[in-house]
Every structure is written in C-alpha cells, then in structure tokens.
C-alpha cells in the first residue's frame, strides 16, 4: 500500500465518525436563531398591591412646593449676588486674591511684599482723595460771598434805623369822607375789579369798585351786565374813557360808538331804563355815577369823580364808589386833558366774584364791526 492510499483511507474513516452536519447545512448559516427556554420568575404569581393610577391634583400642595422653589430661587440669587460682589471687590483691589503657592516664599519677603502693596494702595487712595478735593465744590459759602451779604445787611439795617419806629403798624382803612356811603351793618355790597391801561401801551393798574346794590339795584344790574358783556357783543371791556378832565372826573363806558354819543338799551327793551333815584349826592371824591340824558335815559355811560361835584346832583345817579386809598386812582386823577382825548385809556379787563367763583368780562365785539363798516362806507363814497 502506498503512502497516498493510506492517507486517503485515514481521512475517510474520520469523516465517517463525525456526527455533526456538514457546514453548509448548519442552522447559523441558514439564519435560524436558536430557541431559548424561558424560565418563569419565582415570584411571578404574586399580584401588585401598589396603586399605579396618577395622583390627585392638590392645589394647596402645589402652592407649597412653589413657595419652596421660590425660596430656593431667592437663595440662589443672593448667592450669585454675593459672588458678584466678591468678584467686583477683587477687581477693584487689583486682582490680588489668595492663591496656592507652588513653593512657600521666605517669611521676611512676605512681610516686605505686604508693606510694598500697602504703600502703593495708600498712595493711590491719597491721589484719589486729592483729586476729589480739587474738583469738589465748597459746601459752605465763601468769604467773598459772606462779605457781600454783610454789606447788604448792614445797608439794610442802617436804612431801617433811619426810619421812624412803629411799634404797632397801622391797620389800613378805607377813605370815606361822607359817612352816608358806609354800608349798613347787615348789608354786604359786591365789589368788582377793572384793569386800566394805555392803548397799545403799558398797564396803569387795577381799580376796586363797590356797588350800592341796596339803594340802586337796577343801575347796578345794568353796570354788571355791561361789565360781564351781554350775548350781543356789547361790553365795557376794550372801551375807552373818551373824556378825561384831570382832578375833576373821567367819563367812559360808551359801548355803541365809544365816543360818548351812543346809547345802550338792555336786551328785551325798546328804550333804555330811566333814572332810578338820586339818593346819594356827589359829596366826596371817588364816586361812581351813571349819566342821565335829557330824555331821562341811562345809556350805560358812567363817570369817576376826583372831587366833590355838587353840580352833577339830580343829573347823574350815584351807584358806587372807588375803594380808596388806591395808587391807580391817584395816577388817574393826574392824567388827561380837557381839550384832547390823548392818551387813550382803555378798560382792559374786569372780574368779579360771585358764589365762590370768578366771572371775567367779555370783550366788546360791536365796536370793531362798526368801525370796519364805517371805513368801508367811507372808502366807497
């Protein structure tokens, strides 16, 4: 037997003894997974006793948790704020913080470096303080200001010392030469205020007028109606005093033509009202009287007197007075010219108090319309 035959025979015997299937018929090559035997758990028969349903909603408990979370958030915020303060402090100190040393320096050198740092920090603080001293303003008054104040106060003291000493200052009282014009004890007379001024010029001042409503109610009503301005555009405001005789009287209040030739009739009347009475005479200065025409008509034109004028008795109705002393009244008495209308003095505004509120006079709008129509007719003619 040859060697090759012996080898082939031995291989044939080994293949016959092998019980495993050939490689091409194995289950792994065919893609079939081996089945594992499932062993049941030893407590599989025990049933669960825990409730697996979701918990009930409890608003109170949730709020309590929110409070805890809020406190926790506040605590974290405070901690962060504290850390930021430490970081800022470290930055302002120049970045010097305690750090780990790789090697411990000599003790004398530590003291030396500490003294050097302290000296630098002290110099820097001194420079900052010196700059603040140079740039900051003084919180107290300077010596020059105190000297000027003392000069002013000393001059004031000397001027007051030269004047007469008044222990009890006099109580201002109204000037009424005739006691017949004093209001009765239980009567409160209304007061009105009119402001006078030069046309397109300066303001002279304000006059306070007291009306005798207890004796001349109709005349006072006519005066107040024109002072406030009626609904038709008539009023005393913006009218002028067309006649000014110094130290004698002033005349004004023409709401129709503004020259003393007009006559106003109240709304709802065909003719003006007549003279109400001549109860008061023109026996003192500062009286307010309304002119009466030859036909016994009061057209709203009034006078302000500067001296007793008995020649006007039984011709003008006295229905008020000027509250004196008054600087404006004194200036008025020195102004004017009997032969000229210059300077033109206008009644700029008026006001009076009624039921706790101020009533202001409306300007006269009829004078402007009449003047424009007159100029138009003059140009056309």
Automatic annotation (TrEMBL):
SUPFAM superfamilies: Cyclophilin-like
Region (Disordered): 13-32
Pfam families membership: Pro_isomerase
Lineage of the organism: Eukaryota, Metazoa, Ecdysozoa, Arthropoda, Hexapoda
Protein's GO biological process: protein folding
Protein name: PPIase cyclophilin-type domain-containing protein
GO molecular function: cyclosporin A binding; peptidyl-prolyl cis-trans isomerase activity
InterPro entries assigned to the protein according to its UniProt record, in alphabetical order: Cyclophilin-like_dom_sf, Cyclophilin-type_PPIase_dom
Organism: Spodoptera littoralis
PANTHER family: PEPTIDYL-PROLYL CIS-TRANS ISOMERASE, PEPTIDYL-PROLYL CIS-TRANS ISOMERASE D-RELATED
Domain PPIase cyclophilin-type: 204-354
GO CC annotation: cytoplasm
Top-rank taxon, per record: Eukaryota
